[in-house]
Structure formats: C-alpha cells, structure tokens
Amino acid sequence: MSLKIVVLVKQVPDTHNVTGDAMKPDGTVNRAALPAITNPEDLNALEEALKIKTALSGTTITAITLGPPGAVKTLKEALYRGVDDAVLVTDPKFAASDTLATSYALKCAIEKVGAYDLIFCGRQAIDGDTAQVGPQIAEKLNLNQISCITEVIETTPKSITVRRSLEDGYEIVKSNLPALLTVTGDANEPRPPSAKRVMMYKNIENKCEPSNESYMHPDMGNICSHIKQWSATDINADLNLCGLAGSPTKVKQIESVVLAARDTKQIANNETEIKALINELIQEHIIG
Ligand SMILES: Cc1cc2nc3c(=O)[nH]c(=O)nc-3n(C[C@H](O)[C@H](O)[C@H](O)COP(=O)(O)OP(=O)(O)OC[C@H]3O[C@@H](n4cnc5c(N)ncnc54)[C@H](O)[C@@H]3O)c2cc1C
C-alpha cells in the first residue's frame, strides 16, 4: 500500500530578519537584502508527507517549486529531508505572476508529474500571505481540499483523516483521495536535513547550483536525475494564463505603514479584566 505525494515548497525572503534596507525606494521588497529560506509552513507540509512515506512503504514524494533559478536551493532542502524527486518550474514567462497565475503554473506542473494521491502545501507563504495558492490549485484540479491542517490522523490508500483548526476550535475531517491539504505551523516540528542525504546529494548540489539569478538555458534542463527543470513549454502552459498576462491583480499603490502606539493600558492578571479587554478589542474591531 503506497501513495504518490506532491509537496509544494516556495522559496521566500526571510521576513523574520527584516533590516533597514528590506524595502526599495519604490516600496517593493528588496529580495537581495533578505536571506532566502524555504517557507516555514512548507516544511510542516513536507514533514507530514514524510511521516506518511515512513508509515506506508513504497510511498514516493515529489517536491515542486515555481520561482527563479535560485529557488533550486529550496528543492535541495527538500531532498536533504527525504523527498524522492524535485522539480524546478522556472521561466521568465512566469515573472510577475499573481496567485491566479502562480496556481495555474503549479497546476500544469502537477499534471505533468502525472498520477498523485495527495498534494501537500503550506497554509500560506510568509511573503505573499494570501493562503490562496493551495485552494486555487485544488479548484483547478477539481480536487477535494482540506485547509489549515494541524494533524494527519490516519492515511489509507483511499482516504485521509485530519484535524483542522477553526477560529473557535477544531474539526476532524475525512476525505477520499486524491486530495489537496494545506498544513499549519502547529502541525509538527519539521525534521532537520539528514547529514547522510546531504552527503548523498552533494554532487547534485554542485551540478544544479546556478551561479547567478539569470534563468538557466532550456538546454540545461534535467541536468541531474533528482532535480528536473521545467519551462512553461514543458508543462504545456497557456502563456495567456501565465505571468503578467495571466494576472488580473493590479497593484495600484504601495505604502509603508508604521504603527505607532499612542497609549498603553495595563490590566490585572484576572479573568474579569482579561474578558473586559477582549470585549473592548472586539468592539473596536481589532479582533473577532
Ligand atoms: C500583481 C502581482 C504581481 C506579482 N509579481 C511578482 C513577481 O514579479 N515576483 C514574485 O516573486 N512575486 C510576485 N507576486 C507575488 C506572487 O503572486 C505570490 O508570491 C505567489 O502568487 C504566491 O502567493 P502567496 O505568496 O500569497 O502564497 P500562499 O497562497 O500564501 O501560499 C500557500 C502555499 O502555496 C504553495 N506555493 C505558493 N507559491 C508557490 C510557489 N511559487 N512554488 C511552490 N509552491 C508555492 C506553498 O506550499 C505555500 O505555502 C506578485 C503578486 C501580485 C499580486
């Protein structure tokens, strides 16, 4: 009894380490000033997939990322942790994609991977923060989707049972396979890279490391057996649905908002005062 799993991993700027030069004068993110990391919740998604791989022998995991050539580092992180194959979807034609165009390109890549039982995504990326890409892919592939998963309870060849968080609690949901799942940071503690696998994939690292952020020439695609490189043509993408052409979102203005606390309020550590504060915050529409 084995499953075919796809995990979507995104390379993001590390927004936990924002410095003074994190924004450019035009208000866009200065990616060069921020270290690139794998989106934290994608590591939680990967961890759930790896646990299923351990439990169901013969299960295989393919990691996919869409991004510039440097995003290959995120795929290596996934290989070091235990995935079997990795795909870098990269092409200048994907530049300036909004979530609709991003989910379209990833959907095309998943279709090219072929048969799958489960698709795991993080709930949301720390740079875009929309939490739209997973659900959009599920819609495009006409799949069951379960979002905000905090625990995978049981996986069988035909179904998966999970716990998902709600605003005021949780629910247990069972779905037939195939299904797409988005995983939260509460689900697990992602495992570190395995030293053995780092050694195993050392040569791949040397072969696949692009020397700069320019796009690799298509002839360089599939240069190593564990990291494939696919262009828009490779995944049979309709160019009208890719990049800027496929992105209906228009950014009208970008503002840098600085929140300045004007006054502070101290409350006693008792239930009455805490409840009163919560009510106040709800009435002020700060929470709720
Ligand atoms: C008009 C517009 C133009 C944009 N132009 C650019 C641009 O030029 N360059 C740029 O870098 N960004 C650009 N973006 C941002 C880009 O659209 C988002 O980063 C992307 O769509 C993912 O959305 P998100 O970060 O909100 O992901 P979420 O929906 O929060 O991510 C949820 C999950 O989906 C998966 N996922 C998301 N994106 C990827 C990915 N790329 N690869 C693999 N898995 C993924 C991950 O598992 C992730 O945890 C633009 C956005 C807009 C609105």
Amount of helix = 25-40%
Superfamily at the CATH H level?
HUPs
CATH architecture: 3-Layer(aba) Sandwich
Number of E strands: 11
End-to-end separation: 44 Å
Care to give the gist of this entry?
This protein is an alpha/beta fold. Helix content is 26%, strand content 23%.
Structural account:
This protein has 288 residues and is α/β, with parallel strands linked by helices. It has one domain (4-246): Rossmann fold (3-Layer(aba) Sandwich). The protein contains seven helices and eleven strands. It has helices spanning 40-55, 72-81, 99-113, 133-141, 195-200, 202-208, 271-283, and strands spanning 4-8, 11-13, 36-38, 60-66, 85-89, 118-122, 144-155, 159-166, 169-176, 179-183, 227-230. The strands form two sheets. A nine-stranded mixed sheet has the order 9-8-7-10-6-1-4-5-11, sandwiched between helices. Strands 2-3 form a two-stranded antiparallel sheet. β4 (60-66), α2 (72-81) and β5 form a beta-alpha-beta unit. It is globular, with a radius of gyration of 21 Å. The N and C termini lie far apart (44 Å). The model is unreliable at 209-223 (pLDDT under 50). The protein binds flavin-adenine dinucleotide (FAD). Residues 8-10, 39, 41-42, 65-67, 95-99, 102, 106, 121-122, 124-125, 127-134, 247, 249, 251 line the site of flavin-adenine dinucleotide.
